[in-house]
Amino acid sequence: MKFARKRVTALAGLAMAAALVLTGCADTGTTTGGSSDGGSSGSSDNLAITFIPKNLGNPYFDTSSKGGKAAVEELGGTFAEVGPAEATPDAQVSYINTATQQGVGALVVSANDPKAICDALNEARDAGVKVVTFDSDTNADCRDLFINQADSEGIAKVQVDLIAEQIGGSGEIAILSASANATNQNTWIELMEEYLASEYPDITLVETVYGDDDDQTSFDKTAALLQTHPDLKGIISPTTVGIAAAARYVSTSDYKGKVAITGLGTPNQMREYVEDGTVTAFALWNPEDLGYLAAYAAAALIKGDITGAEGDTFEAGDLGEYTVGADSVVLLGDPYVFDADNIADFDF
Ligand code: RAM
Description:
With 348 residues, this protein is of the alpha/beta class. The protein has helices at residues 5-11, 15-22, 59-74, 93-102, 118-126, 152-167, 183-199, 215-228, 240-251, 267-275, 287-303; strands spanning 30-32, 48-52, 78-81, 106-109, 130-134, 145-150, 171-177, 203-210, 232-237, 260-263, 281-284, 313-315, 321-323, 329-333, 336-339. The radius of gyration is 20 Å and the shape is elongated. The structure holds alpha-L-rhamnopyranose (RAM).
């Protein structure tokens, strides 16, 4: 498994400064390495690469952008991050249009909806901008490449196996997801439902609710789930925002130790809930590596080293060589399980 912890540690000192710069700037974003204004989209030396996460203010995307920025700087290009405050389906359109007008070389986008930003992305591509999706894909005909954090079946399986183990293999569970249209969460939920039905017939998924990758909404939805379903034994939250909010709610309630919380979280956000016994184990990949790989892939497209065709290969700095798979998808690696025994080893 590629898990570039060395690089994470080396950059740890920058984390606070980067988080301060990268959050709270929904309208202006941040640019380093020069200005991306007035570039020439389509030119093979235009390494102006703009990241557009689902929303700003989410530590997961702060970390992926940190990796993206490190890669763009290694490549001698210009990194920028812009994006909306809320993870709604078409909130990214205006940011895509502005970056296109500025003549960036590539956009690296995590989509809140598979279709809603497609027209804007295809206009960008018509203007010569390379489009890489990462984390949450669009439909395949509106991007050149998708950088997938891990195999979707594997992401579904690890979360279901974790909850099954934590609730003793039977009982009611619920899912607290991100936004209702999120491509990545919806793919994982569908696969979790299939895997539950085939492997764990004694576990019943009673409800799926959406916290919109907003902390307060996710917190309130957790409270509502627990009130509506008094026999609930566990919640899977396949979003770093949702799992942290759910764990925070349960940690100070009578449900602590009785209702299991698992899913996908960042070690830094989950540490206190693992240490206080609210959470036993959860999973994720390294978002910094994901952003780093996405930036290298964007640069390879800009330079014309690859087109996004299956079998194309490119170098991704510290992470080594990657090959483009079917449907123009590049796979980062495997999900990883964090628990009380290993969480102290991670800082992201
Ligand atoms: C949230 C976002 C992101 C997802 C992670 C697991 O930060 O929804 O898209 O990949 O959780």
